[in-house]
Amino acid sequence: MNSLLLIRYGEIALKGKNRPFFENKLLNNIKASLTGLQPFQVTFRRGRYYVDVSEDNLFPALRRLQRVCGIVSISPVSTAELDLDHICRQTLRLLRTSHQPGTTFKIETRRANKNFPHISPEISRLVGAYILKNEPGLKVDVHDPAITLNIEIREKEAYLYSQTFPGPGGLPAGVTGKGLLLLSGGIDSPVAGWMALKRGVEIEALHFHSPPFTGEGAVNKVLDLCHLLATYGGEITLHLAPFTEIQEEIMSRCPRPMLITLMRRAMFRIATKLAQKEGIPVLFTGESLGQVSSQTLENIVAIEKVTDLPVLRPLIGLDKEEIVEISREINSYPISIRPFEDCCTLFVPRHPVTRPSLEKLIKAEEEIPLEELIDCCLKKIESRTISSEQGVYN
Ligand code: ATP
Ligand code: MG
């Protein structure tokens, strides 16, 4: 037997002439999120999507859809024939699966099919009377019911639903353009990536690792974070950039307190070149003002000087508690706190500069063959595409 899910979207309904583009993008993202749950069918009618899946796949599909950016809510739907008696029986059945004795309810009917012989308030009244007769423990409350039973009279059948599950809302990933996310294995950057996805940005991720100092665990962590992000926004391309040589050169030839700032400047230079090669117009980071010494306003300015791309920082005004809360909600937290070293945490200087002088940074960079090192790193970047299906978060 097949089951049906009704999907509602919010913000994209407001987008005027771009509406079909937004709706198509969401349709594709919905289909992508269900990969592996075949056979399924997705249709779009009157501003709603309907997903037809096998009964066994109903809850797995619901769980996946709850992560698709752009979706506001989802309801599992039962169907009934276009016959008042059948609608009454099916509505009662639906109510019996979800109600507690003494529950209050209300019926709301929408009649899209005007050929149906009863008007909406009449259907609500007749079905309500049938339910009260057969379940005497229930009461009607039209103002604040515990359960709202929805009946939609459509062309060929009636749809009945009483439960609504929230989606993430926002915009479908991909409608606003592309961004390159600097993704560490920490708590912040995956949250920044999720926030970008939720505003419709398609993400490519860039991670710097320092083998053999950072092991396979660190890369696996980033792969898992990408799998997770892919469940919210479709496929993610991950670029893995080897950073060991640059790091060693900076470590051995530059003043220690400048280490982090110099490393970030090198990362931003590489990110910029990669983004330009990939035709990506903007960088995203997980920086939040003042959180650590490398995120003072002065350091942010000194780091950003090396790129002419806009750098967007969705977390700039959030404090750590707020970021952790989001990371728990989106499930990145358990991955982010796995104890693997990141290339930066390995070599943190004891007293990093908080007010770097641009002149001194440039002078320090002249001590190392920066251009060569950056070109070499860019050549060694390994890229792979990660889909939500490969992950363990379905
Ligand atoms: P996060 O939790 O994202 O690691 P953080 O609070 O640890 O952030 P920093 O270590 O200063 O802050 O990093 C600031 C930002 O620089 C990160 O949010 C991320 O965007 C980027 N970044 C840091 N390390 C890496 C890395 N190894 N690869 C890619 N980007 C990185
Ligand atoms: Mg970090």
Walkthrough of the structure:
The chain is an alpha/beta fold and 394 residues long. The chain folds into three domains: 81 residues, THUMP domain-like (Alpha-Beta Plaits); 74 residues, 2-Layer Sandwich (THUMP fold), CATH 3.30.2300; 214 residues, HUPs (Rossmann fold). Helix content is 39%, strand content 22%. It is elongated and about 85 Å long. The chain binds adenosine-5'-triphosphate and magnesium ion (MG). The site of magnesium ion has 4 residues, from loops.
CATH superfamily membership of the largest domain, which one? Answer: HUPs
Annotation, overall tally of beta strands = 15
CATH class of the largest domain: Alpha Beta
Overall radius of gyration: 26 Å
Q: Give the helices and strands as they follow along the chain.
A: EHEEHEHEHEEEEEHEHEHHEHEHHHHE
Percent helix, as a range, is: 25-40%
CATH architecture of the largest domain: 3-Layer(aba) Sandwich
Strand content: 15-25%
**Total separate domains:** 3
The chain-level mean pLDDT equals 91
Shape category: elongated
Which structural class do you get from the secondary structure elements?
Answer: alpha/beta
